Amino acid sequence: MPMTSPVTTKSIEPQRLLPVGRVFETDIRLAWVRVLIVASGIVFFPFVSDRPGYHPTLGWALLGLGAVYATFLVRFEPYRRNTPDAGLYGRAFGDAALTLAWVGATGGADSPWVVAILLSLATSAYRYGTRVTTAVSLFYAGGYLAVAALMGQLAGRGIDLAIHTTYILLVGAATILIVAGRSKRLASRLRLLSTMQEVARVGSWEWSLETNGLTWSSELRRIFALADGAEPTLEFFTQSIHPDDRDRFLADVDAAIAARTPFQVNHRIALPDGTIRWLHCRGVVVEGDDGRPTALVGSSQDVTDQKMLEAKLLLSDRLASIGTMASGITHEINNPLAYVATNLELIERDLAALDAKPELARVRVALEAARHGSDRVREIVRGLKTFARPQDERQEIVSLERVVDFAARIVSVDLESRARLVREYADVGCVHANEARLTQVFVNLLVNAAHAIERGTPDENEIRIRIASAGDGRVAVEISDTGAGIPKANLERIFDPFFTTKPTGLGTGLGLAICKGIIAELDGDISVESKVGAGSTFRVTLSLVSDAGIAAPRSEPAPTSKTTCRRSRILVVDDEQRYAKSLELLLASDYEVTVATTGKRALDLFGQGERFDVILCDLMMPQMTGMDLHAELSGLHADQTARMIFLTGGATNDRARAFLARPDIRHLEKPLELEELEAAIADVSGAKRDLDSLST
Prior knowledge:
Blueprint: H1 25-48, H2 56-76, H3 84-105, H4 115-127, H5 130-150, H6 158-200, E1 202-208, E2 214-216, H7 218-223, H8 234-240, H9 243-259, E3 263-270, E4 276-287, E5 293-302, H10 304-353, H11 361-387, E6 396-399, H12 400-410, H13 412-416, E7 420-425, E8 430-433, H14 435-451, E9 462-471, E10 474-481, H15 488-491, H16 511-521, E11 525-531, E12 535-543, E13 569-573, H17 577-587, E14 592-596, H18 599-607, E15 614-618, H19 626-636, H20 638-641, E16 644-648, H21 654-660, E17 666-669, H22 674-695
Parallel strand pairs: 7-9, 13-14, 13-15, 15-16, 16-17
Antiparallel strand pairs: 1-2, 1-5, 3-4, 4-5, 6-8, 9-10, 10-12, 11-12
């Protein structure tokens, strides 16, 4: 349709559109060639119109008809609105019919315009394919003989007609060979272009603003899952754009047309099967000779994989931020929690020494509850610190039971409002994995199980966690729910990136895809079974660690003698005065305890000649850290560094983590287990007694 103002995409009425070429230079040139041929006939025909065998009236009529035909093609360009086959055959046989009629009107076999037949065949190689060129060649040969027969020239001009017909066929054959060679080269280039587009996942397109026609490359048809034989339409394209992106995309296109500027935009498309893909669309505006926009030409690249990678990187960055915060938060929580736990331990020990008085029963119950709460907080903080450190990709031997239990604690608030949590664990052993990433998998599966159940129905629903042997040295973890279930149509796509059935803003569609990737890296498998209305079961299968790969449990330390000539001396170095005092009270009955609340104060004690059997030192302290104190002692009193046991509420930086990773450094996590602390003290003080006995 001719344009008198910038075209607005929103104003275009949806309709069935036919494919068109980008620019019709060949058709335009041939249309002008027809004009020149008719003009030459008008110029030369008067000089030969009196020859025998000529038909002046028919000749002038054909020149007039040819002029109208050529002018019509130049002015209205009907080939833009014809189907490809109809256009090709119509123009080819129209030209042939007019040419043969002109040859007949100017003498048949005696016509000087017989060469026009050869000219028409030659142009076939320029415009048509082998099929049309072959048909036109045969039509010319047969038509020329038919014209001669109508004029009664077969008997008297048989040799001339045979020569002319032979040359018509030879020129036709040569033209066909030229067309075939050109078509072969063109097909090869098109195959190369198609392959390059397929590899790059880039499809090319053209939108004619004059006819509203679309032309898509084969790769773009594949990207949009367009059915074989179907032609793209503007309605199909606009409906394929994701509803949330459609208005923005059309506005950007409108702006580009109005300003005659290139445009690029990222948008989603929804395929007929519901799959969501991301495309990066780039286009330019093509202007006609009068400066008006005539077409948009561009490309659309499937960037779904890049978008998935960006989302994974964003998620990793968020987890890294959580990990950074968690390191500091857990350190701050662990310090007060440490002296709470230590004082509870001290109270429990003192109560045990008292007679079983009835009035103390309530105190013991309250103390037991407080100890239980303290232990739960400690486990949660330790687990959170491990889970929120995604930059640590180290794999180690981990207990599936511990990982699954911690994942359940993280999402316990969401679970408790929806279903009962049932655990069914078999003693199957351990797996080799990154604990944080494995926890991420089970957190995601438990959250999905919870979201499959409506809130407020915990008595009617359950989420069951089952750990059992899967045979062949593998273990299976199943998470089942009694929720709504997953429709069969979604089961095949549930692990696809960006596929989600959750409302906008409640899911990225990456959770299960990431889970599948994590399990695949562990040489495991994840699958799902579901029935609508009956719930779903996700099954994670992993390889067990062989017996040879499991670290042997640490043996209990040998009890230390309480009848040595002197009690072991312990130095507690911690800036948290309440915690230092709690440790002093806890250990004072068995050891001689000295407290220093700064690293500088500890150095002063060593400068005064003090020596200790065990040094319990906080890792992170202001002014002088435990690491700094260790470095100072290494230069002044190297023998004392072997007595140091570092207490940490969480290594908050790379230096601290690297320090604790050294094989010569002993450390314990706050809050401390009394048995663990006593074992470490016995190990260090026992080593000193062995050295003392050797020296004597």
